[in-house]
Amino acid sequence: MFMIMLILFLAIGLLAGIIGSLVGLGGGLFFVPALLSFANQYQPGSMTPQIAAATSLLVIAVTALSSTAGYLKQKKVDVQSALLFFIGSAPGSVAGVYLNGMLHAQSFSLLFGLFQLVMFGVLMVKDKLSPRAIDWKVKRQFIEQNGMKHEYGYSPLLVVLIAFFVGVVSSLFGVGGGILMVPTMLVLFRFPPHIATATSMAVIFLSAVVGSVTNGVHGYINWLYAVLLAPGAWVGGKLGVVISARLKGKTIVILLRLMMLGIALEMIGEAIFQ
């Protein structure tokens, strides 16, 4: 039974790492449902929502570190913007840990399912929304290898406020926060897609470390399952960076939407019929 669990978690970590790195989400959309489902089958009653979110967040830190290192080599991480996002997300990550401890299993499943359903809707309409043309206080440029120039910008105060909410969601649900951050960067601040993905992973890594330290102090992390997921997540993070350099990722995003919808409906159904 343990060998089956090991192979299954390695595969989940690999898949989540690839997709999470490719689209800048971190992979928590896969880790949390997998932990709540498969871990409780292996050891009934061993996985609570708090432990699932905390363990997921730790593995996300591994994925994010792996992919961020690769994106830094490709010079796609906007370090200055990432640090600004982190200023807001760090306290949000700590607040999310305390909010997580107040949720019961049924409430967690329902909120997690509804959260994913909303984010599924965001991803569905994201490509149809026109980027906002705003004269931001901070303006930045990125020039691709083919010479194409991208201009984007933001308000530092607005970034910090948004990042705080991202940090709360990150620790509360163990999803990393990229599912909110990437659409915000693309639609509101007009980040180039590859810069948004890479910068999001850098912020996710920093926020996940803060959240994981807080979770560790409270004893929420299941270290066995984190170790089982981590190798696949690390390799998946590296592969996601390689694929990102060669692929637009539209097919992956479509698959992600379908998976998010399926998991959302499953978690909502589980909460309703518990």
Question: How large is the share of residues in beta strands?
Answer: under 5%
Topology, number of strands: 2
Main sheet strand line-up: 1-2
Q: Classify the oligomer.
A: single chain
Helix tally equals 10
Number of folding domains? 1
Calculate the mean pLDDT score and round it: 82
Uncertain runs are none
Q: What is the straight-line distance between the termini?
A: 26 Å
Using the alpha-carbon principal axes, give the shape. Answer: globular
* Secondary structure category: mainly alpha
| Rg calculated over all Cα atoms | 18 Å
Tell me the helix content. over 70%
Main sheet overview: 2 strands, antiparallel
- Elements, N to C (H/E): HHHHHEEHHHHH
Descriptive keywords:
two-stranded antiparallel ribbon
If you had to describe this structure to a student in words, what would you say it looks like?
With 274 residues, the protein is mainly alpha-helical. It has one domain (2-273). 76% of the residues lie in helices and 4% in strands. It has 10 helices and 2 strands. It has helices at 2-23, 28-42, 49-73, 79-100, 105-126, 156-173, 178-188, 193-218, 223-244, 250-273; strands at 138-143, 149-154. Strands 1-2 form a two-stranded antiparallel ribbon. Strand 1 (138-143) and strand 2 (149-154) form a beta hairpin. The protein starts with a helix and ends with a helix. The mean pLDDT is 82.
